[in-house]
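Supplementary Text 2. Reproducibility record for the structural model of the 119-residue chain.

All settings were left at their defaults, and a single model was retained for analysis rather than an ensemble. We include the record here because the model underlies the residue-level annotations in Supplementary Table 4.
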Amino acid sequence: MTPSSAITALDRQLRKHGHDALLRRQAWAGTVRTSADLPVRVCLRGYRPDELTGGIVQGDSEIVISPTELGASAWPDGAGELPRQGDVIISGSRSLAVIAVDPRYIGGDLVRINLQVRG
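Retained model, structure tokens:
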């Protein structure tokens, strides 16, 4: 599988089975808080009991996003910047804090981003 075919397949599955969400990074400039939002398509699932190891705790979830939206935007500091711990996913009425980021690569090309979220 090539990197572009993996991204195309992921994008197709997210369009078909995912839902819309916002990726938000908040920053402080003195006493003023600013937010940079990026609309993303996500797949959200809870962890299975056998996956509750290390820093994954009951109630955490995994979110899968495609690098497509990140690469097409300047969110927040440049095209293709990965989410990081402390960013927030807003999915419906839920606000989920990013705990860990697990980028996946094929041949050095980013093809998928898994996020461990809590909230």
